[in-house]
Amino acid sequence: MKAEYTYTGQLVLASASPRRAALLHEHGYDFTVEAATIDEPTSIPGIDSPDLFAMELSRLKAHDVAQHHESAIILAADTLACQGTKIFGKPTDRDDARRILKSIMGTTHHVITGMTLLNTATMSEIVACDTTSVTMRELSDEEMETYLDSDAWEGKAGAYGIQDHGDKFVTEIQGSYSNVVGLPLELLAEMLSNHVAS
Predict the structure, then answer these.
(1) Is 141 a catalytic residue?
(2) Which candidate in 39, 48, 64, 78 is catalytic?
(3) Model-level pTM?
(4) 10-197 CATH fold
(5) Can you tell me the distance from the alpha carbon of 115 to that of 111, in angstroms, rounded to the nearest whole number?
């Protein structure tokens, strides 16, 4: 399926995520990649909700990359998993991945992706987010350790990638599948149709 949008200028993906790049390629987007280099904070003063946190991180990434482009449309995203206001980011190591997985297994959690589109020619921006509910089954100790041995949890919000064996643990998804992968394509198409990308 080709992307249904029109825009002028260069689209720049402000992310080193191969999953986001693959989604864009698969859906016909023409873009270049320049990963943001900010140190991602674990908290932001005055922001206490996961959706606002994800959106603000995407803004910070977009503005970081925008410094290098006079006329481009910067696409930045930040994906996190949460239960209520408790945020599960990317695990720091195997033990942290185990802790996160034990917290979300057998429950329903939410995956939130904040996205920013920034037009560097005008410095106008759109910031939005998408939320998907994901229900996961309980894992046996053996399943848990086998999964952790695979290292598929590395660099994944919530310690799993639904496209990398994580679908074996998921019993129900309500919302955008691509959002769980890391880039809600439906929301992106809607954002690109706005005047900021024309």
Answers:
(1) no
(2) 78
(3) 0.88
(4) Maf protein (3.90.950)
(5) 13
